[in-house]
Amino acid sequence: MSSMEVIVLGSGTSHGVPMIGCRCPVCLSKDPRDKRTRASIFVRFCEAKILVDTAPELRLQCVANGIDALDAVLFTHAHADHILGIDDLRRFNWLMQRATPCYGTDATLAVIRGMFAYAFEPAPGSPHSRPQLELNVIDDRPFAIRGQTVIPVPLLHGPMPVMGFRFGRFAYCTDCNRIPESSLGLLRDLDVLILDALRKEPHPAHFSLDEAVEMAKRIGARRTYFTHMTHQLPHGATNAELPAGIELGFDGLTASL
Questions:
Q1: Range(s) of the domain holding residue 143
Q2: Could you give the 3-state DSSP secondary structure of residue 91?
Q3: Sheet holding 148-157: strands in order across?
Q4: CATH number, domain at 147?
Q5: Which of 150, 245, 141 is closest to 193 using CA atoms?
Q6: Nearest alpha-carbon partner for 199 in 178, 175, 229
Q7: Taking the complete model, does pTM exceed 0.90, yes or no?
Q8: pLDDT tens digits along 63-77
Q9: Mean pLDDT across the chain, nearest whole number?
């Protein structure tokens, strides 16, 4: 049995694919790999079960992938498409019979506290009406979840500092358009990398497809999958253009290491 399994729960941009009101070929595609919920992953790292980000479709993602236990949630940043599923953690409170440990930078957790203020207020008359969250502030220092080391990887999402994460020989770097040199050193010797690749056209806060390919080659993981993709990247046609060892991810993709 492999020591790690990664499931791509969602591979889409903030609008998701299909987009509301769009009838482009990708939004109307019958290929299930063109159906993209908002970006998130689930990692089984030895005994640790870790969710990265709580997408708006979290309930549907967990049901589709048979996820019924969590040891921790890691947040890359506090944009809406990465945190709005927080209320669905209530179900894991019930299943695990405890609060859910959540990890993020001080800035990320401050936004979560403000946006989900009801989760941090007393509710003696209705204890199950809010998620029970145990907030843990992280910085760029490694930390452990159930004895497994998680290495934060500082990234830039336009001018905004965000976090990627490394687990063993796997790393997840969504929502970024620059990886500082110091962070590239944290991404050596990877078996699998999941990396932001929004669309073909340049964007001020995300890697374009060509930029992502260039960065993937520089990092040199054995396999690279792209994520956080718009409806401008049809799965089959785009994959046909990509170099060996690099391909688009898709909702439900599973990688074992």
A1: 4-254
A2: helix
A3: 143-145, 148-157, 160-167, 170-173, 192-196, 223-227, 246-248
A4: 3.60.15.10
A5: 245
A6: 229
A7: yes
A8: 999 999 999 999 999
A9: 96
